[in-house]
Every structure is written in structure tokens, then in C-alpha cells.
Amino acid sequence: MFKRFFILIIALRAIRRNLMRSLLTTLGIIIGVSAVITMVSIGEGARAEVEAQVSRLGENVILVFPGARQLGGVSIGGGSANTLTVEDAIAIRDEIPEVIAASPEVRSQRQVVYGNRNWATRIYGQSADYLMIRQWPLEAGRMFTEEEVFNARQVAVVGQTIVEELFEGTNPIGETIRVRGLPLTVIGVLDRKGMSLMGSVQDDIIIVPYTTGFQKISGRTHAMVINVQVFDSSAMDIARLKITDLLRERHRLAADQANDFNVQTQEEIAAAATETSRVMTLLLASIAGVSMLVGGIGIMNIMLVSVTERTREIGIRLAVGAHGKHILLQFLVEAVLLSVIGGLLGIAIGAIATHMVGFYGNMPVVISENAIVAAFTVSALVGISFGFFPALKASRLNPIEALRHE
Amino acid sequence: MAIVAALSSAVSKPPSEIVPNAINQKVAPVIRLEEISKVYDTGGGISVHALREISLDFRAGESVALMGSSGSGKSTLMNLLGCLDRPSSGKFWLDAIEVDKLSRDQRADLRNARIGFIFQNFNLLSRTSALENVEMPMLYHRASISAGAMRKRALEALDRVGLADRASHHPNALSGGQQQRVAIARALVNQPRILLADEPTGNLDSRTSLDVLALFQELINDGLTVILVTHEPELCPFLQRTLILKDGRILRDSRRDKVGSAAEARAALGEDV
């Protein structure tokens, strides 16, 4: 029986003998594996974040968009159609028993001024129960009341980015900010929320009563979206059907006419976002796969050189009684060891890179155990498949000619 | 010394056990060649007859000088004797085993167990200690040998060639003569029946050459068959038999009654000043 332990020692010694060359050879594998680990970790992080947001956004939220809009489909432009009114939102809240809150949303991109500072941000017109729908707590102050909504009061609740950019971290409550000359009194500060599903910073926000938003800021008459909250997850489907029926009736749509609105749950939106990140991960992983292929070819190349260099050694081993399979195994183990060492280094570098992306890039990352196992397995397979041909070549050498080799 | 004891016991087996069709000799042959021919096809329909119907016997404890100009077929004969190659025709027995019928791996096992190789340029693995060089053939032994036993046997073999204190040295830290003795220890470690030496003194000065020859003579006395390819006629007085090849045939096969002692000749030369 051939001693496996010795094969390992012989292979390690051969690698150590040409340390620099071995390192350069494994560079392709190192880059490939670290790329896979980093990409998959970022992808997993995005997915975990999406999942966390789904629960944070409230499990029982339904969004009603105007116009035709399909999940993962083609017609996305419908969102700008003017088909949803404030009255639609009020009707959904008042006429459907499963619904406990509804907020007609209007967004405007505006320059906001405080003192000598200004900042471009998004101003959202919402109802008084919007923060309840979004499960978004206040850090300080209060949300505007229904009475303030009814009277279109010039009050605002601001996000953390606004506090940082306009107020430089000082307490903004009671201060007045201006939007195109319109003064708004800050009455509340929102908790930090972080990135949204689509990657925008949610803290860069000012929320005003929707009446103020429609009449005094945007000048629009129709809601861009209606945020709806249902009392329980079990009622989601029925609420969705009832919203559809109600809106069809209110919009006087004939039986053969398509909906001029679109009802979606948060889960569906999250699914679309997850799908996007999944495709992205797949794409990046395939690029990393190409790197692994290049790395494998590098290993094959250097193993062929190694076999030629060590022809005489192979001759000596064959002369003293090594079988072809011993030589095959020896070179195969060396190739696998090379690529596995590359894989391990790649995993380490990938983990470090992932942490750095998470730390400096302020992105959610999750180091995937599956990716580590997969990267390790693939690098071992690369070693076996690309090391086999050079090893076979070595094992088939004629001992007489190999001994004569200079 | 354990090696020598094992060797002598192998040699003292009854001849009929070693070669079934034992010929009328005091000691049965270790190697028997019957009408061995080797033809190389060089391509283009031209073939080279390296060996032409050679028949030879080698006995245990015999020392042979194999001579001949280049192209005489002596390298081909050595490769055949070393079971590295197979004859084109003819029969070849090593210890009653018909070598020309064996597969590549079976011949490898036969080389491992019964043949020791010694080369002109020593062919040690560089950057590998003397001890590990000597251990190497045991890695490929059919029987599993523990690491401890391998080390013990390798140290014994190194002690046999007088290099026990150099076990951890790498070949580049050893003199030519010492390297060749490590190679001899490597050849001896699996307790072979035959030593095949290809120009073993070709890279050595005359004093070191005699040292190596003296070592060979000790091994021959212990029953080992030593076949030595050489260009140097001055080695012949120290070997029992001289074979001269020419054009693939045996030109001369002579035995010498009185063999000189390499150890005495070495002593006569004195120490290098």
C-alpha cells in the first residue's frame, strides 16, 4: 500500500520549493474564490435586508398603484397615470371593514431651506396614520393629527438625513423650514430607517399632511400610491379583492375593461426586489466562475512545467518501483493542494473584503456558509480536473527516457 | 547487518527452489537469458537490432563487468536486466520469474523488491535528506511499512555504507563518493538480489572509486549479484567476470580465477595529501 501521508508531504515540499511560483499560480483561484464569497455575501445581505424590511414595513400592507403595473412585467410606466384620488383612499379606509388605515401618497422632489442651508429632498404627503402603516417610530416630537391634515396645516415630520444636513444634528423641533417660500414647522423627527428595497436612503425624507402636499407643494390632484393597512394577515386576500371591487365600481369600469389601478402586497414587491438581487448574484457568480476557469488553466500550465522539470525525479521513482498510479496520485495531490490552498486563501480574502464592504460601504452583508463550502469544493474540483492531464502525462513517462532526461 | 543476514538466507535456498529447471551448476542462476533479442523500430521502416539472440546466466554472488563501445547494446541489456524494458523476443527469468510475461506494474514491483539501481550521476533527489532518499524505495513497497520501520531500515542501510552520521544531510552537502554511497544505500534498502550499476565510478576520483568497489566486493561476498557497466578496463581485475558486447552480440565472456581486493588497492594508494 502506498502511504498517503508521504504523498502529502512530497506535494507540500514541491509547493514550498517554488513558493513564489505556486502563489502566482493560485492567484486565479484566489481571485475567483474571493470574488464569489464577496459577491454572494453582498447578495445574501441584500436578500436578508429585504426580508427584514418586509416585516418592518408591516406584514399587512397593501399598495394600490395607479394605471397598469405588473410584477416583473413590462408595463411599468403606468405609475404616473392619474386614476387614484384622495377620495378613493378615504373610501377604501371607510368602506372596507378589513382595512384599518389608508394613506394617499404624493411625492415631490424639492429644495428645502433652513437658515443659510439648503438641501434637495423628497417631500411626502401622507395621512396621519402613515407612520402606523409603515411601523415607523418617531425619535422625537409627534406626528401630525387628522385635524391638521383636514386643515392642510404647514407642519412637517423630518427624517434623520434632514436633521444632519439642514440642522447639523441640532434639535429641529419647533424650527421653520421653507419649501419654495412655503414655511413648514417641524413637529417630529423620524427614527433612522436605512436603505429601502430599491436602495435609496429612506431617511432623506420630509412628511407633510397629504392635503398640504397636494395643494401647496406638488400641485397634483391624484395620488401616486395609496398605502393601505389590513388588520390581520389572514384578511389580506379578501381585502385585496374588496379593494379591487370598490375601485372598479368607483372608477365605473365596465366588465370588459381592465383595471386602471394595480393592487400589490408588500411581499410581492419584496419578491421582485429579491429576484433582482438573485439575478445580480447569478451574474456576478458566473463572472467569478470564469475566473476559476482561468485559475484552473494556470494550475494546469504550471503542473505541466513541473512535470517537465521533474522528469528525472519521476524516472528515479519509476526505476525503484513506483507504479504509474503512484506518480499520477503524487502530481494530482500537488495540483489539488495548490488549488485548495488558493481556495482557502480566497475564502479568507473574500471574508475580509466582505467585512470591509459591510463596514466602509455601509451595506448589509451576510457571509454565506453555502458559498464557502461551494467555493472550497469548486476549487478542489478545479485542482482535480486541471491537474489530471499533467499528472497522467507524468505517470505515462517511460522510465528509461525519464532517467536520461537532462 | 540484518540486510546481509537476510540476503544470505535467500541465497542459501536449495537451487531447485530458485530455478525449477536448474542447470548443472553449483549455484543456480539468479538471472537467465535465453536467445534475447531487442529490435527498435526507428520509424520509416528502419529497425535497429540492439541485441541479437543473447543467452546468458548470472549466478548469485557473481560480479560482472559489462563492457563495449557505445552502440554495442550494453545499455539495452542493462535496461532489460533492470526490468525497465521488455525484450522483442526470447526468454528472461529473474529468480525463476518469467519477466517478459509481466505487466508494467508487475515489473515495477519486481524492480522494487529485487533490483537495486546505481547511476553514474547518482540520481539522488535534491533538497531531500540522505535518509529520505534511502527511504524512498520503501514508499513503493508492496507491503505497508510503518514510518518507524522505514526510518530504522534506512538508517541501517546508511550505516552499512558508512554514512549513518550523514543521514540528515542533503545531497549538495555531500561529496561525490558520499552521494554514491547514499545511492548504494538506497539500492540496498529493499534487500535486492541484484545490483545494477551504470558507470558507478564514472564521476569519482580513483581513491573514491576504489572505496565504492570495496563496498561492492563486501556485498558480493554476502551473496549479492553485481553487474557493472563500465568504460574503465582498470575496474576488471576487481570483478570475477568480464562481458564484452559488440553489435548486439557477446564478443567475449571471460572469468578470472583471482580477483583483486579493492580494499587492499585502496590502502596501497594511501590518503590524499
Mind explaining what this structure looks like?
The complex is a heterodimer of chains A (406) and B (273). Chain A has 13 helices and ten strands. Chain A is of the alpha+beta class. Chain A has two domains: 4-52 and 272-404, no CATH class; 82-259, no CATH class. Chain A has a six-stranded mixed β-barrel. In chain A, helix 2 runs antiparallel to helix 12 (369-395), helix 3 crosses helix 8 and helix 9 (266-309) runs parallel beside helix 12. Chain B has 273 residues and is of the alpha/beta class. Chain B has one domain (2-12, 59-87, 102-267): Rossmann fold. In chain B, 34% of the residues lie in helices and 24% in strands. Chain B has helices spanning 2-11, 15-18, 74-81, 104-114, 130-139, 147-160, 176-188, 206-221, 262-269; strands at residues 29-41, 47-59, 63-67, 89-94, 97-98, 115-118, 194-198, 225-229, 241-246, 249-255. In chain B, the strands form two sheets. A six-stranded mixed beta sheet of chain B has the order 6-7-8-3-9-10, sandwiched between helices. Chain B has a four-stranded antiparallel beta sheet with strand order 2-1-4-5, with helices on one face. Classes of the chains: A alpha+beta (406), B alpha/beta (273).
